[in-house]
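Example for tutorial group B:
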């Protein structure tokens, strides 16, 4: 049901009971009073619903397969849900032969009943909406040269789109999800090339004027097809009160693929995953902030969260449907003598990604609980122990040091990084990450912009065991302050 351009939430059914309260008499005076009360109830409910901020919690099944202190399970998920309005579980994929949805980890999700355990959590948390996410850069069905091939193929044919839509609807209803999140895999932008001096200056000017080089010859067609796809999907779901959301994956160019104004009526919300602009995979020769909130001088103008938000706002997408994504992990590079000694980004890198973490076992990536245990505590600082990472929060280079040996700055515009200088070319590391402090800064930004909420991506990489502080899920807790 909708009023004007505002889609009423799917739990609007409770207003039926309000109708009974006001329909107590057929006398004209009472009918008029009842109608006024009824309209007031609708108006108040719509306003409160549109203004109620979301905390969208992503949970990647990958965490269930880790070992040791990094292993995640349902018991660790439950303490987080008191802070979440929505839970997005991922990921499902697409069968390239049938064009139907499929579980990417059938043994875990179906045979071990994780889907059922996830959706059963709604019994303990009645207000929680649980969605299944498709894609998420986890479905590598396409050839190595084009991981998005299957996803583009689906868009290009109406019959394939409808086959996928019908299979997805049947799938989420079978497993009792409240809706589907499309973390649709589109071609990625090309990473920044490393140039020196004047050449880099002119390259930056070129990008700001004419944009990026072409990564998809059919981009305009795919943009129109995706809009049609979303419209068709909404039509299929609307009679069953199922949610439809979009996750804009890192380094997917929204200006190329998403017609914000046309998508707005059909999506419940969109999550902008404003991180991984810089990664050791995309940028093996240079380390830099992976998730800056604002544009940084000398970098690509669109590789920051504020640019992404402004694109969607300026192109007609409602602010209260925009959710800002916050990462719970860091990207790491190996520091050597070529990287200098200051740690100030950008850094020259000649040995690629940092070593894999103890829990995540993935080169170039550390979960927040792997990062925070490498940063010295105040007690360790006072004892003169300097064998851990040095955390830096100062994007302006106006260094102010606190009593815990951390460099601080109130603006926190670009994110947080930490580093350890190499000794004899060994053990050097540089990591860009978000922590509770930067999450708080993003919360302030979301409030100021009047956005719809924040998304924590993902719970399995936050400090869910409370290894660093007495509180579990420190990044989620900081993000959930949006609702206070």
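The residue assignment follows.
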């Amino acid at each position: 049901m909708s009023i004007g351009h505002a889609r009423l939430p799917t739990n609007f059914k409770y207003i039926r009971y309000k109708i009974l309260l006001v329909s107590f008499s057929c006398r004209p005076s009472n009918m008029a009073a009842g109608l006024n009360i009824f309209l007031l109830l609708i108006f108040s409910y719509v306003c409160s619903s549109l203004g109620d901020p979301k905390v969208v919690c992503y949970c990647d099944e990958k965490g269930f397969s880790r070992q040791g202190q990094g292993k995640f399970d349902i018991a660790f998920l439950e303490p987080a849900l008191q802070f979440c309005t929505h839970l997005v579980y991922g990921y499902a994929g697409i069968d390239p032969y049938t064009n139907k949805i499929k579980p990417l980890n059938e043994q875990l999700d179906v045979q071990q009943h994780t889907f059922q355990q996830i959706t059963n959590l709604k019994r303990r948390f009645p207000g929680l909406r649980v969605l299944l996410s498709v894609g998420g850069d986890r479905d590598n069905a396409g050839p190595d040269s084009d991981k998005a091939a299957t996803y583009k193929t689906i868009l290009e044919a109406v019959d394939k789109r409808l086959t996928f839509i019908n299979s997805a609807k049947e799938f989420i209803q079978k497993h009792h999800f409240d809706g589907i999140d499309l973390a649709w895999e589109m071609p990625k932008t090309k990473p920044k090339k490393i140039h020196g001096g004047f050449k880099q200056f002119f390259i930056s000017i070129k990008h700001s004027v004419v944009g990026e080089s072409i990564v998809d010859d059919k981009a305009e067609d795919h943009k129109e097809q995706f809009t049609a796809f979303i419209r068709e999907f909404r039509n299929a779901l609307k009679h069953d009160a199922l949610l439809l959301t979009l996750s804009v994956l890192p380094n997917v160019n929204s200006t190329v693929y998403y017609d914000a104004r046309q998508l707005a009526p059909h999506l419940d919300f969109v999550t902008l995953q404003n991180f991984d602009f810089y990664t050791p995979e995309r940028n093996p020769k240079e380390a830099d902030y992976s998730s800056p909130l604002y544009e940084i001088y000398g970098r690509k103008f669109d590789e920051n969260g504020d640019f992404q938000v402004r694109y969607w706002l300026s192109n007609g997408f409602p602010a209260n449907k925009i959710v800002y994504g916050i990462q719970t992990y860091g990207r790491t590079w190996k520091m050597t003598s070529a990287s200098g000694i200051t740690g100030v980004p950008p850094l020259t890198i000649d040995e690629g990604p940092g070593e894999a973490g103890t829990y995540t076992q993935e080169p170039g990536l550390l979960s927040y609980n792997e990062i925070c245990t490498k940063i010295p505590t105040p007690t360790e600082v006072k004892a003169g122990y300097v064998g851990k990472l040095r955390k830096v929060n100062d994007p302006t280079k106006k260094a102010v040091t606190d009593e815990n040996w951390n460099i601080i700055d109130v603006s926190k515009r670009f994110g947080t990084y930490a580093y350890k200088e190499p000794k004899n070319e060994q053990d050097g590391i540089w990591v860009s990450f978000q922590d509770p402090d930067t999450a708080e800064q993003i919360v302030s930004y979301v409030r100021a912009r009047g956005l719809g909420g924040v998304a924590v991506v993902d719970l399995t990489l936050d400090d869910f065991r409370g290894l660093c502080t007495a509180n579990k899920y420190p990044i989620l807790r900081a993000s959930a302050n949006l609702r206070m």
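The chain has two domains: 1-50, 52-329+435-483. Compare this with the pattern of hydrophobic and polar residues in the output above.
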